[in-house]
Amino acid sequence: MQVIIDFDGTLTSEETQASTLAEMSISSLASDVLQVPRDRLVREYAETRARLLAAPHRYSWEVNGLRASYCNEGAFILNTTTLQTLLRENQDYADAVARAFPNAEYDPIVDCTNALFHRNTALIGPAFRPQAATLLNALLHHPTRCPVVLTNSLGDKVTRLLSTLPLDAPVQVLGDTRQYEMAPNWTQTWQHPTLGAIQIWPVSRRYSVDLRRPDYYRALQTAAQRDPHRVVVADTFSLPGALPLMMGIPFCLLRTPYTPRWCARAVRRHPHGRVLNSLSDLLPTLEELEPRDA
Ligand SMILES: [Mg+2]
Fold this sequence. Notes:
Elements: E1 2-6, H1 7-11, H2 14-34, H3 38-54, E2 60-63, E3 66-70, H4 75-89, H5 91-100, H6 108-124, H7 132-141, E4 146-150, H8 155-162, E5 172-174, E6 190-192, E7 196-198, E8 200-202, E9 208-210, H9 214-226, E10 230-234, H10 242-246, E11 251-254, H11 261-269, E12 273-276, H12 282-289
Parallel strand pairs: 1-4, 1-10, 4-5, 10-11, 11-12
Antiparallel strand pairs: 2-3, 6-7, 8-9
Helix pairs in contact: 2-3, 2-4, 2-6, 3-4, 4-5, 4-6
Bound molecules: magnesium ion.
């Protein structure tokens, strides 16, 4: 069984790094992109962040016009969505970002926040959760389980960060999975037990998750070529978790200080979903999920 474990927030404690990451992003934005006083941007960031947290169902990380994640599902996601909202709402800022990112792959603001994230997470280095090395070593030594680290970052950055852990063997990295790559024209549908064929999963009255993520789908299918038995483990729901569940792949949500209640509820209610209160809960949970013939 491949145990596909998300990197940021799952093996690492995002909650301890998010404010440093925000400060670094604000500094680069103020001086390199917007040319405005840093203090002003710090104040605007705090105001925007508070507004998002007061009504998180109204604010999202959007890519190609679709919601990739609600704003508060992860500590780094909240950073990214706060910056995107702040930049979109101020025309002068949006124009400055468009000048700085003239050949945007998505739109200039998404490219800008992606660039800030990748550059600054590489600089701050990881803050691994205390159980990370023990867990990975236990999986590396297990006869039928193989750990694979999942990330939207480039694989070589994460491989380098993992090399700072005392691991007994190298761990495979499934990098650049682009869980946020939303494709409005992708026609793939998913069978919901009561709703039939869906592309958007309504998980509660207020919250729904868009499943049109072809790049992530392909990454999970590529992993299946090595071993069709897979489980995905992550600290957030919309980006890494909803699609595996709809594909019939078990998903374990690591509950963190920032996990919204609706995410844990959605996972708990799904027959293939499990909620972990700590990384140490993963090994006993895998005992339940492992195919009997493995
Ligand atoms: Mg994560």
